[in-house]
Specification:
Number of helices: 6
Subcellular location: Cell membrane
Strand content: under 5%
Keywords: Cell membrane, Lipid biosynthesis, Lipid metabolism, Magnesium, Membrane, Phospholipid biosynthesis, Phospholipid metabolism, Transferase, Transmembrane, Transmembrane helix
Main location: membrane
Structural class: mainly alpha
EC number: 2.7.7.67
Number of strands: 0
Order of helices and strands: HHHHHH
Helix content: 55-70%
Shape: globular
Family: Belongs to the CDP-archaeol synthase family.
Distance between the termini: 30 Å
């Protein structure tokens, strides 16, 4: 396994997923679900999923996700965009599932919270490029640890209300 390739593949989804939280600092936020409920009577995604967060996640993931490739040339801008946008989509899917399971916003849901963004990013990206299975397995192993650590840092920085 080429560790440089591995880390440059997981970097855009990590950045996209981690940077969307900065939208919480904005004064005006617009929920992706417009405050509407699904057919089960519960919110579709919840207040924590906003258009601003989606835009920040995709833009930051694409730009910062591509940036190291100016040196290493592993993925292109399109690749960084696909990985970032699909990571944000995966996070939305995770929020949708959590709402269906009656979990409130911020409630921990292992391994859904830790892997939804990454597995969706890899699934969508694999429609365009081949991803070695060993990369997916390695990412599944290390992501929960990295996710927990970065969430704790975001909590300490008061970007998140919960440390998970």
């Amino acid at each position: 396994m080429d560790l440089t390739v591995f880390f440059l593949l997981i970097w855009p989804p990590y950045v996209a997923n981690g940077s969307a939280v900065f939208a919480s600092r904005l004064k005006w936020r617009h929920p992706v679900d417009f405050g509407r409920n699904f057919i089960d009577g519960r919110r579709i995604f919840g207040d924590g999923k906003t258009y601003e967060g989606v835009a920040i996640g995709i833009a930051t993931g694409t730009v910062l996700g591509y940036f190291p490739n100016l040196v290493y040339h592993v993925i292109g801008v399109f690749d960084a965009f696909v990985l970032s946008a699909s990571a944000v989509l995966g996070d939305l899917i995770g929020a949708f599932i959590k709402r269906r399971l009656c979990m409130p916003r911020g409630h921990p849901a292992f391994p859904l919270d830790q892997l939804d963004f990454l597995l969706t990013a890899f699934l969508v990206y694999s429609l365009f490029r081949e991803i070695p299975v060993v990369y997916v397995l390695a990412a599944v192993v290390i992501t929960p640890v990295i996710h927990r650590a970065t969430n704790y840092v975001a909590y300490l920085l008061k970007l998140k209300k919960e440390p998970w």
